[in-house]
Amino acid sequence: MLLTIDCGNTNTVFAVWDGTQFLATWRTSTETTRTADQYFVWLSTLMNIKGVKLDITDVIISSTVPRVVFNLRVLCDRYFGCRPLVVGKPDCLLPVPPRVDEGVRPGPDRLANAAGAFDRHGGDVVVVDFGTATNFDVVAHDGAYVGGVISPGVNLSLEALHQGAAALPHVDISRPEKVIGTDTVACIQSGVFWGYIGLIEGITARIRAEYGRPMKIIGTGGLAPLFAQAESLFDTVEDDLTLHGLCVIYDYNKANSSIQERA
Ligand SMILES: Nc1ncnc2c1ncn2[C@@H]1O[C@H](COP(=O)(O)OP(=O)(O)OP(=O)(O)O)[C@@H](O)[C@H]1O
Ligand SMILES: CC(C)(CO)[C@@H](O)C(=O)NCCC(=O)O
Ligand SMILES: [K+]
What we know:
Layout: E1 2-7, E2 11-17, E3 22-29, H1 36-50, E4 58-63, H2 68-80, E5 85-86, H3 108-121, E6 125-130, E7 133-139, E8 145-152, H4 154-164, H5 184-211, E9 216-220, H6 224-230, E10 236-237, H7 241-255, H8 258-262
Parallel strand pairs: 1-4, 4-5, 6-9, 9-10
Antiparallel strand pairs: 1-2, 2-3, 6-7, 7-8
Helix pairs in contact: 1-2, 3-7, 4-5
């Protein structure tokens, strides 16, 4: 079975793909100090609880945090007896190479989003991914990742207000009833929530105008549903898009035999 690992700047998601469906997904905070043995104790316990057999034969990793890859490689070697595919490394093929400036290394999560979106929707797509950053990933007609937009994430923005202003408390995101807040918390929620609605509307409109062809907008990431229910910002919301993209990239590598060659 295939283990997909999507390591973001805040959280790391592990998901087991049996060739047809994800049997389970588990989430842990991203910590560069976590060792292979710690990962394994955590993962094997959760797999046991969920009744998922421990027969991982292949692993594919997307990591926006380079330092965690070493320990994840040790995990694969020591406990699963395999060498993982790491998106963005030269030996991991992509179905369609990105078209960006020379020397630029797009985030592997964005490459996975592009592969997942192209597989499901066939190009001319914008993926809006709400993680630590809120990024807009533009996927061309042929499936190439061609760039996009990186803006500060929702929780990062809330945290920055709290850190930077002595009188502002830490606030969780939610949809305020009104735009004009009558207490501090409501004012912050309004600024971030409605500010984000404006940001998403404005950036997707500008991307569409600049791109010059009709485009689908797909929301993904933990907060996509919160924004999707407020306004019609997205054509669809797909919470498993990055993981799906990892499966697509894995299949492509398998079909092009680089995995067998290395084995
Ligand atoms: N209503 C909500 N309020 C606050 N946080 C929420 C809400 N709904 C979902 N989330 C958060 O969204 C997060 C899941 O988002 P996602 O995995 O896309 O990004 P992340 O883990 O924060 O970032 P990264 O992928 O960059 O590490 C979870 O941490 C979850 O707590
Ligand atoms: C933008 C983030 C942080 C989103 O997770 C990640 O994709 C990343 O670190 N990207 C590297 C720079 C780039 O994508 O151009
Ligand atoms: K993510």
